[in-house]
Design brief:
alpha+beta; 6-stranded antiparallel β-sheet; globular
């Protein structure tokens, strides 16, 4: 038996409502074109890279160009965020469970940020990652947004910072109600190694110009990737996708065999 691998990320769901995080699926909740699902491994791999996190409840927002207003089932009338609100009835529940030194320190559920039309939503989660693994918080790749809102991307050092997992939003249109549903992903979080975005890694870049910069090996690679397949008009679709999946399967089998030894 292969021993189970330790989790890369552990989510602590602290609010009593909401969906638990889900592994993002390759079809973007069925919204991707079928041709992309079958043949475009680049698109499906990016779509599935990470986990979806959700709003704990259905809620609506309205930005009038100056103030942000909010309502939900428990707060049916529009109320301004001045500058933040707690999740309904959560502050009392937090104080009943928290140690004495942390009374009154429940995370705010919604916060109107100082920048016009910018909002912070707590997912109800705390994320904890393995050493040197961090979380990239971003919009869902290849999945339409919930409305006229955009997500600020950020990388959180969740192997060191044990705190609420927030999503920062920016309204892209005023005077238009925006509904955020509890069953539609709010954002996607993806695991990245610290070294992937370090200066040492990102400074390792080379740019070569002109066709003369291509070596014989480069031309061989271009021929194998572009020229030779297009010389076979009856070739099956999805050659790249099939090759990537085969290589992924072989790597998985080799890793399983190494763990079993």
């Amino acid at each position: 038996m292969t021993p189970p691998a330790e989790p890369i990320v552990r989510f602590h769901q602290l609010l009593p409502a909401g969906r638990t995080p889900l592994r993002a699926d390759r079809a973007a909740m069925g919204t991707l074109p079928m041709r992309a699902v079958r043949y475009c491994e680049a698109v499906t791999s990016a779509t599935a890279f990470g986990w979806w996190v959700f709003s704990p409840i259905d809620q609506e927002f309205l930005w009038d160009g100056a103030e942000i207003y909010w309502r939900c089932a428990d707060v049916p009338e529009w109320v301004p965020l001045q500058p933040s609100v707690q999740f309904p009835d959560y502050a009392e529940a937090f104080d009943r469970e928290a140690p004495a030194a942390m009374q009154g320190c429940a995370p705010p559920f919604l916060t109107a940020l100082p920048e016009p039309g910018c909002l912070q939503i707590w997912t109800g989660l705390i994320a904890q990652t393995a050493p040197d693994w961090h979380l990239l918080v971003r919009a869902m790749p290849n999945l339409p947004p919930a409305g006229p809102i955009g997500i600020f991307e950020g990388i959180i050092e969740t192997d060191r910072w044990f705190g609420p997992l927030f999503v920062n939003l920016r309204f892209t249109r005023s005077h238009t109600p925006v509904r955020i549903r509890h069953d539609y992903p709010l954002a996607q979080v993806s695991p990245v190694l610290r070294e992937c975005y370090s200066n040492e890694t990102l400074d390792r870049i080379a740019v070569e110009t002109g066709l003369s910069s291509l070596s014989d090996e480069d031309w061989d690679g271009y021929y194998a990737t572009i020229v030779e397949p297009n010389a076979r008009p009856n070739r099956p679709f999805g050659g790249y996708a099939a090759a990537v999946r085969k290589r992924r399967h072989e790597c998985h089998r080799a890793r399983e065999a190494a763990l079993a030894e």
